[in-house]
């Protein structure tokens, strides 16, 4: 139990630093899609919702689990879908012109 | 945990990380999002083997729930206008936070009321964090959605002793949490948890209602980080690595993004959250007396642009999106370029209602993103520009933000230095100050500035005609 908790804490800390690093280099241009994509990724909570609903054994836990699953699925599907729509507008691949370097 | 689902979760996490990495450039961004979605699918499939699904009933329930949620999410995502993107993100964020809180409530109830599983200190702390953070995010996002959709509560809503009330609720939540951790000394743990749930809902509402329009992007970003942390906390409840890794990634990245944004506004996060923009409410009224402005018609401005301007920089603000004038903007750009003029866009980090929102709105109508310049890149360009055209923006070009003599809500905010251009053209409906309620001295510089009083869409169309005809 303890070693499992320690492993989880280690993963937590490393993930946090990774998150800091990943975002720091995204340009302003893409901040809205970025926010929207990370928004979709925290839809991972649907995994937890499915586990909760699967182990539900009475009316209360079933209701709560069901709402959680619906919420989580909305978060995942809506989040990725809308990000995809947004990024579709950034057009076909083109070379980014770096005017400032000329 | 079995080995196969564990590997699948790791693969999903790797895809999330690689996907976010690909969001760094416009060319790779879309595939990055797709990769992250694939990662999500892998994690969800693996969960079928992790969850203890032992009968047809729960398979049916899960399928129905996923189906309902997916349809709702997809329909909303497909229908939403790009201008309404901030409230859409707020909505998806809210349901995510709600889901995290409910997962924790369900687990706690199973342990306390049904005697299933076993209670550990760590799991209980994780339940509390997940419920509190998730619920605050849910309630806060709901209020943000209502405000941005302009259903109610627009502007800053304040009442006396607001901070005291918030602090009292927070202390209440801490006391109830302590009661649960002590095994229910005063109240039963379940009742305490329900009270915490209610108090957190209230706290989420009170946290967001005083925050006005201009600061909303920052709040949404912060709530996004909250939901990530709530998901990570529910990962600790369930001992699920997929939740811990992904939730923490989002929590950390959301925090950084929030800091970048509040930096772009020149306002420390604490000031936004604890002071709100409330103080600025009445700022604009004092200098409204009849000062002279250089009022020009579209014809006159068009003539100037056609005859004397070679390099034009356009600064769009949220007013452009409100007037749905993006298309008219593109038409004007095409006309100017067909006359051989150089046209660039200066995009302030907080133009629109989310950072990067204006870029999305302009690329939507086919303005190539190569023309969209960030604040640091565009400011030197104003020095040799003949005209800066400001459409539906004010605060982001207000030189008084960096005037040490003037104390205002936007003091210290980096702005676009449009005053360095030869001429400044405002397309604006009236002289009223923007979101922050701060008067702009450029309005009254009759040598340099031309004011074209018009709705953004109408003004751009008239200007386009005028340039064509002269």
Label this structure with key terms:
heterodimer, A: 102 residues, mainly alpha, 4 helices, 73% helix, B: 470 residues, alpha/beta, Rossmann fold, 2 domains, NADP (chain A), proton-translocating NAD(P)+ transhydrogenase activity (chain A), transmembrane (chain A)
Describe it for me?
Chain A: Pfam families: PNTB_4TM. Chain A: Its EC number is 7.1.1.1. Chain A: It is a multi-pass membrane protein. Chain A: InterPro entries: NADP_transhyd_a_C. The complex is a heterodimer of chains A (102) and B (470). Chain A is an all-alpha fold. Chain A has a domain at 31-90. Chain A has helices at residues 2-24, 31-41, 45-54, 59-88. The N and C termini of chain A lie far apart (59 Å). Chain B has 2 domains: 80-278, no CATH class; 289-469, TPP-binding domain (Rossmann fold). Chain B contains 16 helices and 6 strands. Chain B has helices at residues 3-21, 26-50, 56-79, 85-112, 121-148, 162-181, 189-208, 216-238, 241-264, 269-275, 298-308, 318-322, 326-338, 357-364, 375-378, 456-469; strands spanning 311-316, 342-346, 372-373, 387-391, 423-428, 449-453. In chain B, strands 3-2-1-4-5-6 form a 6-stranded parallel beta sheet. In chain B, α14 (357-364) links the parallel β2 and β3 (372-373). Chain B is elongated, with a radius of gyration of 26 Å. Chain B starts with a helix and ends with a helix. At the A-B interface, α1, α2, α3 and α4 of A face α1, α2, α3, α4 and α8 of B.
């Amino acid at each position: 139990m303890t070693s499992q908790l320690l492993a989880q804490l280690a993963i937590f800390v490393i993930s946090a630093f990774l998150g800091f690093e990943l975002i720091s280099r995204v340009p302003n241009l893409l901040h809205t899609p970025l926010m929207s994509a990370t928004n979709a990724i925290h839809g991972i909570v649907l995994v937890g919702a499915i586990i909760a609903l699967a182990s539900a054994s009475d009316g209360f836990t079933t209701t709560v689990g069901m709402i959680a699953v619906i919420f989580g699925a909305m978060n995942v599907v809506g989040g990725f879908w809308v990000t995809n729509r947004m990024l579709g507008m950034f057009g076909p691949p083109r070379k980014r012109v770096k005017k400032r370097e000329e | 945990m079995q080995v196969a689902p564990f590997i699948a979760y790791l693969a999903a996490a790797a895809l999330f990380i690689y996907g976010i990495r690909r969001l760094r450039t416009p060319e790779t961004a879309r595939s990055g999002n797709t990769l992250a979605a694939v990662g999500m699918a892998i994690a969800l499939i693996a969960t079928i083997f992790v969850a203890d699904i032992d009968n047809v009933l729960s398979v049916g329930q899960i399928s129905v729930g996923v189906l309902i949620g997916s349809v709702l999410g997809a329909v909303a995502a497909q229908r939403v206008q790009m201008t309404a993107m901030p409230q859409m993100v707020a909505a998806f964020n809210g349901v995510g936070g709600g889901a995290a809180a409910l997962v924790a409530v369900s687990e706690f109830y199973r342990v306390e009321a049904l005697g299933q599983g076993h209670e550990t200190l760590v799991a209980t702390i994780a339940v509390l964090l997940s419920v509190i953070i998730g619920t605050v995010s849910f309630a806060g996002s709901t209020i943000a959605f209502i405000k941005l959709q302009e259903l109610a509560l627009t502007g800053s809503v304040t009442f006396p002793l607001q901070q005291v009330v918030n602090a009292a609720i927070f202390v209440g939540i801490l006391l109830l949490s302590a009661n649960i951790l002590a095994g229910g000394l005063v109240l039963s743990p379940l009742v305490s948890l329900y009270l915490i749930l209610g108090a957190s809902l209230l706290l989420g509402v009170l946290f967001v209602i005083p925050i006005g329009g201009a600061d909303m992007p920052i709040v949404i970003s912060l709530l996004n980080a909250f939901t990530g942390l709530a998901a990570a906390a529910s990962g600790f409840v369930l001992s699920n690595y997929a939740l811990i890794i992904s939730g923490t990634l989002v929590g950390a990245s959301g925090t950084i993004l929030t800091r970048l944004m509040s930096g772009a506004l020149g306002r420390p996060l604490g000031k936004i959250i604890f002071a709100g923009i409330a103080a600025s409410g009445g700022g604009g009224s004092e200098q409204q007396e009849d000062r002279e402005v250089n009022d020009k018609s579209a014809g006159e401005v068009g003539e100037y642009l056609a005859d004397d301007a070679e390099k034009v920089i356009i600064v769009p603000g949220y007013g452009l999106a409100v007037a749905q004038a993006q298309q008219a903007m593109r038409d004007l750009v095409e006309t100017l370029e067909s006359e051989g003029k150089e046209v660039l866009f200066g995009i302030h980090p907080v133009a629109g209602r989310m950072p990067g929102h204006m870029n999305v709105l302009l690329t939507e109508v086919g303005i190539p993103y190569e023309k969209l310049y960030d604040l640091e890149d565009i400011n030197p360009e104003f020095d040799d520009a003949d005209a800066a055209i400001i459409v539906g923006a004010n605060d982001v070009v207000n030189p008084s933000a960096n005037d040490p003599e003037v104390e205002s809500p936007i003091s210290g905010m980096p702005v676009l230095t449009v005053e360095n251009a030869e001429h400044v053209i405002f397309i604006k409906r009236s002289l009223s100050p923007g979101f922050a309620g701060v008067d702009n001295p450029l309005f009254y510089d009759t040598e340099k500035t031309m004011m074209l009083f018009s709705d953004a869409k109408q003004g751009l169309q008239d200007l386009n005609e005028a340039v064509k005809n002269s």
